[in-house]
Structures are given as C-alpha cells and as structure tokens.
Amino acid sequence: MKTFLLSLIKPSGAWAGILLFITLAATVYASTTGHLDIAREYLGAPMLTFSVGSLSINAYDALRGMLVLVLVFWTTAIISALVEGRLKKLTRMRTTTRILITKIFQIALYVIAFLVTMDLIGLDLTTLTIFSGALGIGLGFGLQKIASNFISGLILLLERSVEQDDLIELPDGVTGFVRKSSARYTLIETVDGKEILVPNEDLITNRVTNWTLTNTRGRIEVAVGVSYGADLEQAQALILEAAREHPSTIDDPAPQCFLRNFGDSSVDFTLLFWIEDVVKGRWAPQSEVMFTIWRKFRDAGIEIPFPQRDVHLKSSSSPTEA
Predict the structure, then answer these.
(1) Is 8 among the domain residues?
(2) 87 and 15 in one domain?
(3) Using H for helix, E for strand and C for coil, what is the string for 24-67?
(4) CA distance 155 to 176
C-alpha cells in the first residue's frame, strides 16, 4: 500500500505518462459532458468555502489546485526521467557527476513546477509569507535531520570522497560497497550481502575508511611464530618467498618481513605484502600465503610452536613438612 501511494505521488516516467493521459482524458470528458460545471456549482457553494483574511478558497478551487499540482508534477516526473535516461547514456561522464547533475536538475525542475502551479491556480505568492515563520520553525526542529542529510549528500557528490562502487569501512566495523547515493541516505552492500542504509550526515561527520579512494591496492598482514631452535634467517627468507610467489602480490611496495617479538614460546615475525585489487578480497590471498608458509616450514623442518609452560615441582625436606 505504501509503495502504491508513493508511486502515485512520485511516479516513474512510464507510470507518470499513463496517469497523466488518464487524468487529462477524464478532465476533457467531464468538461465536454457538463459534469465539470455541475461539480463547480456544488463544490463552490458558500458552505464549502473557507476564508482567511482576504483569501477565500472553496472546495472546487482546492480540488482544481490539487489536480493542477498533480498534473504539473507528473509532467515534471516524465521530463526528469527523460533527462536522467539521457545522462545515463553518457558513459564518459563519472557516475557521481551524473547523479549530481540529475539531482540539481530535479530540484530546479520541481521548484519551477511549484511556482507554475501556484500561478495556474491563481494564488498570490505573497500570501504565503504568513506561513514563512512556521515553516522556518518546522525546518529548524522537525526537518533538521532531513535537511542535514540532503546537504551532506550534495557535499559527498561534490567532493567525490565516497563514490558508487567504492569499498568503505565505517567506525562500527561495517565494511561494504557503495551501491546507491540518494538525497537522504547512502546504500551500502556488505560482503555478506546485507544492505545497510547509512544517513549521509554520518559519512560527513564520522571517520570513514575508503579503501578505493585513490587506488585499489591493499596491504595484508600475517603474524608467524617459529620455535627458538629454528634458523631465523631461513625462516624469514621462506616467509618472504611465500609472499612473492602469490600471483596477487605486487612488487611495489615489495613484501617485507620483520622480527617483532621474542615471545614466551616462539620468535614472532610479521609479514607485510600488498595486493593489486583489494576489492577482490583480502582473506583469500592471506589464507593462501599462510598455507604456503606452512608447507615451506614443514619441508624445511621449521616448527611453528604452540604455547608451552614449564612446571617445576619442589619437594619437601622432611616427612613432617610434606
């Protein structure tokens, strides 16, 4: 039901054309058959007239205004859909640029449509100044978040800091791809298929990690521990060799392996290597390199130790103490 009402208020291009044709046909039929005059006579009666100061509106004027408003906005929806379809065919234009141009055009088009509707109805726009104070209060309180998200969406489109198909990570750990940018929210599709609607304001005011802002490279970190009896130089060489052999590893920056810690049970190394396209995933290269390290250590006889504890039993010096 909600979707149906939304489609009536703001229909798509084809649906708007059908509604516009049906409404115009019904209006022409009612006018030619005399039904429109009958409706004007009954709905324009004094008992159905509402007056505020010098402004007088009856039920017929209200219905006529609503009809004109709907027709103008449906026509605007058709024009907007045509322009948006033409812009989508411009493949050389960036996606965010197309979205920005479309939104600015839609805003300007609907503002013009509203002004044209007021003029066709015969309403003097100066009479609307009575409600300007209440409208300002409403924007300041009730519509503050909506206005903030709308402006934040325009800022994101202008800055191009978060674009469609970017891989981003939010402060709460949510990681996914940007699939859609709208006036109120940004749609993020996570790696496990969930779709999350993030308010545009959150992407402006919070710290956001964009893995693909300037390039798609990504660094992978692997911690490796070897026993104290192992040849540390050989272990380091085998770890680097495993990283270089992986097809996703790039040469610049080159893989690096550092000895980081002398632990309780092991000597700890950290391997750092870069892959070309982080969008394809980091877990698969990390897992494959770890498997390669395991095989190389096994063939070289290098042990990856597990935590061990030495327990010392202290015996008593006399039977009474025992």
Answers:
(1) yes
(2) yes
(3) HHHHHHHHHHCHHHHHHHHHCCHHHEEEECCEEEEHHHHHHHHH
(4) 21
Please indicate, yes or no, whether the overall pTM of this predicted structure exceeds 0.85: no
Same domain for 26 and 71, yes or no, is yes
Q: Range of 290's domain?
A: 218-300
End-to-end CA distance of the chain, in Å? 84
Residues 34 and 119 in one domain: yes
Asked if the structure places residue 296 within a domain, the reply is yes
Percent of the residues in the chain that have a pLDDT greater than 70, as a whole number = 64
Burial class (CB in 10 A: 0-12, 13-18, 19+), 59: middle
> Two tokens at 109?
């088009």
How many domains does the chain fold into? 3
CB 72 within 8 A of CB 115: no
pLDDT at site 53: 56
Q: Do 232 and 202 sit in the same domain of this protein?
A: no
Angle between helices 59-88 and 95-121 (to 10 degrees): 160
Taking only the tens place, the pLDDT of each residue in 70-129 is: 777 677 777 777 777 776 776 666 666 666 677 777 777 777 777 766 666 565 555 555
Q: What is the pLDDT of residue 5?
A: 47
| Statement to judge: residues 106 and 7 lie in one domain | yes
Same domain (yes/no): 181, 283: no
SS3 of 289, please? helix
